[in-house]
Each structure stands twice: as C-alpha cells, then as structure tokens.
Amino acid sequence: MLAACVVFGAGYWGLDFGDGELKIFGRWDVLAVCTLSALPIAVLIAGQVARQSKVVRGIAGGLSAIAIVLCVYADGDAGALLSASRLSVSAFHGLLAVAATTLVISVLSVVRIGKDRELGLSCSRRVGLLFAVMAVALPSVYTDSVSKTMTNQLNRALSNQRTVKAAAYARKLRHLRPRARIGDVAIATLIESLQSRIADLEAVASRSLSPRSPASSLANRVTALVQLEHLDEALIAIRPLLSGDKFHPASFDFYGLCFQRLGDPGQSLIGYQMAIQFWADQPDSIQKRQSLESAWKGVAFAARQLSNRRMEERAFHELLAVAPAASNHLLLAQCYKEHQKMALAVKHAKQAAAMDPALQPRLEAISASIARDHLGCLGGVK
C-alpha cells in the first residue's frame, strides 16, 4: 500500500504542471481512457504475476515502478522519440497505462485473476491478445479525435488572437501529437513563438503609464491585456479611451469584445452598437469597413446569445452590405439553418461556394446537415 502511494503520488506530481496541464497524456480525459482501456490486460498480467514467487513479484513490481517514474519525469523531447507515427504515441500512452494499472492491482492485491487452472492456455492467449489490442487501439482512436478537435480550437484561438489560449492548446496538442504541424509550422516552434509573444505582451501590460501617456500607449496596453485574457483589467484600462481627449475608435470594439468573452452579451451588444454609431458618421475608408465588419459580427454574436433572432439576421445582412465576402455569406447561411429557414440557408450557401471554392468542405457540412433534417430542400446544392 505504501509503495503504491509513493509511486503514484510522485507520478501525479510529475504529471501535473503548475497550470493544470498533464505531462505525457496532455489531458485528463485521455489519461482516463488510457487507464480504463488498460484495465483488462492489466488484470490478466497481475493475475499471472500473482502466481509467481515473491522474488519474481518483487522484481516485476520494481521494474514497473522504475519504468513509470522514468516515463513520468521524462522530458517532453522523450515523447518525441516515439512520435514517428500517431500509433506509436498512442501505444506509448497505452503501455504506460498498462504498467501503472498492473502495478496498482499487484501491489494492492485487490484482484486475483488467473488462479483458475481450468482455463485453457490458448483461450487465455486469445483473450490476452484482444485486451492488448484494446489497450492500444482505444486510446489511439480517442486521441486522434481529441487531437483533431484541439487542432481546430488552436486554429480558432490563433485567428482570434487569443494568445494565452492558443499556447495552452498547443502545449496539450504537443503531448498527443509531438510532430503535429499547424499550417507549415511545427508545433514545438509554434509553442516557442507563442511563449515569446506572451512575454512581450506581459511586458507591455505591466509597463507603468502616467496620466499624460498618449492614447496609443493606453490602447496598446488594452490590446495586451485582452490577448492575455486579463479582461477585467482591460475594462478598467479602457475607460479613458471611451471618451474625452484620449478617445480611441477601437475602444468600443474592445469594450464589446471583453464583455463577450466574460459572458455578458447585453453589455457586449452596447459596445458594438456604440462602435457602429461612431463609424457610421465617418468618411469611407478601409479602416471604417473593417471596423464595421467586426462590429456587426459582434452584434450578431450578442444577439444570438440573447436569443434575438431578428436582430441576429439583420446584423448578418448589414455585415454583407459592408463586406460581401464568401465567409460572411456562409455565416448567414449557418444562421438561417439554425433558424430553420432552409431555403435562405441554401441560397447563401450557394453564393458562398460560388465566390470561394475553398469553402466547399464547410458548405458540404452545412448541406449534409440540412439534407438530414429537411430532405428535399437541397435541390442541387453541390
């Protein structure tokens, strides 16, 4: 009992980073799946070990403990040695889970399997092989699914300039797919770049500013705070920029964005509406169009959170009037689909595909969903 507590207490300490991220496994759910998948084969192995002499059991337990501790405290680069393929990483996770689970069962003597001499050896081998395959295959399938989801989350965080979240996703993804690439950038290189960016943002955010500091310096600090997810601090820092001699036109957009991420759609809507009111009176320019595009997207998102469908649809139409891009047609198509207006969803989905063939996969996903729910509405969407 004491040995198990020592080994797994040390293992937990080594697995758990200060920010709550898991080393080697990356996420708690991956660790759980690996452990549960390893349980059947671990029970069989523990039963076989239980038949042996005390010396053999002691040696087996000691080797398992040493293997676990070495894996737990291995540097992140050690995982990369096994990263020639996705299966090898999943196999590493599965084997580590098997070793750990076997050790627990053996040391605690909770289960005694394999003492029934009437079981045939051939049957035991077939069952053992099945359990061994399960210990590797299930974590592999689950890890592949998690990795795809996490890659999408990472790309979304990068596109939204959520640097801290992107770094967290990248670190977790590296434990699951050490050789993953985001675009043309290796995951390890991306992590270093994000960490450097975070350090730069922290330097900007912590820089002391006097009451006489120009609006641009205050705006840079607000931008840094938002990207660092220090939203409450950003809302305090943004106050001088909302009006007066230090007014900055981007302040309304950041005001709406902060409340959007804080989960307050009402205040977020106010911020984006103030941005629209300001830019509506300005002469036409690239900055005006970009700002209005961002603001109308913010209004649409806030309206969706407030369950105001009419406002959401109007916001997307205004968005198309400002920026009639294929991606914006696709947003309106998705909006109409969620509002069960399938004919309009099909119309804008077609327009998006005609304007940008690169959006075809996303269009097909929307089309397939519409086809499942409303057969016959799709006539000719390709």
From TrEMBL:
- Which residue ranges does UniProt annotate as crossing the membrane? 28-46, 58-76, 91-111, 123-142
Q: Does the keyword Transmembrane helix apply?
A: yes
The protein's UniProt keywords, in alphabetical order, are: Membrane, Transmembrane, Transmembrane helix
Question: Can the keyword Iron-sulfur be found in this entry's annotation?
Answer: no
Matching entries from SUPFAM superfamilies are given as: TPR-like
**This protein's name:** Tetratricopeptide repeat protein
Species annotation: Stieleria marina
Q: What is the lineage of its organism?
A: Bacteria, Pseudomonadati, Planctomycetota, Planctomycetia, Pirellulales
